[in-house]
Amino acid sequence: MNVLGISGSPHKHGNTAYALQHALSKVAAQGIETEYISLAGKSIAPCDGCFSCRGGDCVQDDDMTSIYQAIQHCDGLILASPVYMGLVSGQLKVMMDRTVVARTARRFALSGKVGAGIACGGFRNGGQELTLQAMHTFFLQQDMLVVSDGPGFSHSGATIVGKASEDRLGLETVENLALRMVRALRQRAPN
Q: Which residue, 24, 59, 54, 23, is CA-closest to 172?
């Protein structure tokens, strides 16, 4: 089993990266392989709706090719994004749009994978829920299963406010999310 974490922040070492790497460290501590990808500095062209992917692969040749391969390989996917104007970052939205290739021609290549989200905002009610909802919509449209941070908070996912390393409550939701990801993967694993 393996879990892929994708940071949708344009900052390689910002709060989103910190929160996601914290989650992946908790997953790894449970004996599950992890991989981390930052979208910062990546060249990913927007989907132009050509639907050439109905016949195979996407025709665009950019950094999305290796990211898509990593997504196909993982069993669990944790997306993390800063809150920009109440939603996911542009970088993450473009990446999510480009995965349409996974569902064209009725492939649904991501079907059954487990997804979870982390949102980092400037305020406790700074758009994190809508950001997580956008991630959940992506997971559901890919026919993936979705986990949240669960009890004792049971929100839509993990949320960070301000400086991630100092948000004790937020990091607790990140840890809960990571452990629920592990539990979901183990429940789905063949005996």
A: 23
SS3 assignment, position 158: strand
The structure tokens listed for 132 are 């997580």
Residues in the chain: 191
CB 46 within 8 A of CB 97: yes
Sequence spans of domains, the chain: 2-48+59-188
The tokens of 56 are what?
A: 């195979």
State residue 191's pLDDT score: 63
CA 168 to CA 165: how far, in whole Å? 8
Conformation bin of residue 106: beta by default, left when phi > 0, alpha when psi is -120 to 50: left
Distance CA 161, CA 185 (A): 28
pLDDT in tens, 76-87: 999 999 999 999
Architecture in CATH of 2-48+59-188: 3-Layer(aba) Sandwich (3.40)
Q: For residue 6, give the H/E element and its range.
A: strand 2-7
For 25, half-sphere exposure in the C-beta direction (CA atoms, 13 angstrom radius) is 9
What tens digit of pLDDT does each residue of 147-168 get? 999 888 878 999 999 999 999 9
Query: What one-character DSSP code corresponds to residue 105?
Result: G
| Rounded Cα distance, 127 and 68, in Å | 27
**Model pTM?**
0.96
Counting residues of the chain whose pLDDT is more than 90, the rounded percentage is 86
